[in-house]
Amino acid sequence: MVVFSRTALGSFDSSIPLARTSLDPIVSDIEYLGSVVSGESQVTSSVFDRIKRGFDILFAVAALVVLSPVILVAAVLIRMESEGSVFYKQERIGLNRRSGDRRGGSSSGFDGTDRRASIDRRKKINAGKPFNIYKLRTMRSDAEKAGPALSSKGDPRITRIGHILRRTRIDEIPQFINVIRGDMSIVGPRPERSFFINQVRREIPEFPLRLKVRPGITGLAQVEDGYTETVEQMTGKLYYDLKYIAELSLIQEIRILFKTVFVVISGKGAC
């Protein structure tokens, strides 16, 4: 299979409705990988799951202990620059527990109406489980008053301290809490909001297949394809997400972690 050119994605006009036929040969590659991933009732082995989960917990706990002073300094700077909470939480869609990893995770604490609403949302996005992702706040408190919107380079909603936190990936540190809770993994596809998942899957039905594994803090798409600024670029990243799932292995995990270190040090791409 020939890997498509990534430069084509950069020329897309986000104001033009996404047409499935306009993405060839990207779509053909995604369809191929989608058929591979969807054909697997369980994409990981129990041994791989245990090793990966054990590493996730140990790494996340160690990272939070070592980086706690960084969080404290960042929190002070955030409060000095703008009003509002230091931490930011947002609902994202996680693992589809009806496929792939079938082990239980932490309880979300939903009950009654909240539980029914959660189930309704899961039905709309192929049973992906909603969870709250945690970050250090990098935008103004009213950043999405007009509705959901992807961030972009030079985004006026991002504060001055926010630009630094994003460039250094310090804003992502609280996500280690999500890893410990079982919502996320260190490595995996980035979790998205249901709004954008439903928007993309109208044209690319393979998009929810990303939910067959736990979402991650870093992933193949992030180290290979940089920031996601448009829905079209989100669609393009699906190739790497499905490739990651189709080729799950400890070697691939290690390779992505090393690439992540390079991305963070060099300031290129996104994690």
UniProtKB/TrEMBL annotation:
Residues 52-98, 127-265 form the Bacterial sugar transferase domain. Pfam families: Bac_transf. InterPro entries: Bact_transf. The chain crosses the membrane at residues 57-78. Residues 98-121 are annotated as: Disordered. It comes from the Bacteria. Keywords: Membrane, Transferase, Transmembrane, Transmembrane helix. One of its GO terms (molecular function) is phosphotransferase activity, for other substituted phosphate groups. Belongs to the bacterial sugar transferase family. This is Sugar transferase. The lineage of its organism: Bacteria, Candidatus Eiseniibacteriota.
